[in-house]
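Lab notebook page, bench 4
Experiment: in silico fold of construct C2
Operator: M.H.
Input chain length: 104 residues
Purpose: comparison with the prior construct
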Amino acid sequence: MLIGQIMVFDARDKEISIDDYVRYIDTGTVGKVLDTRIEDEIAWVLIDKTGLWYKSKLVEILDEKDINIKDTPTGREVDVEELKEKAEKLENMQMDSSVAEGGG
């Protein structure tokens, strides 16, 4: 550990380091940790995907095999599994003839 480095722990009490990939438990958002801080005795991590700070106890460190993101030509990161699930839901959705009726 470097002198002055802040020790921050995830929901499973694993130490979080800068550049670790984490998942926000409530929404499944995955991102890389850009920074950490402790404020009022609460540990926080800054996630690159959203640019938001999350309480460290509400994220979990991901193993490399669990990371489902890739670089795209636009430079943004995409959760590939999440996109597959959304596409599957759209494919399975059926339109009921009573849902959309023409005006007249």
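Observations: The chain has a mean pLDDT of 79. The radius of gyration is 19 Å.
Next step: discuss at group meeting.
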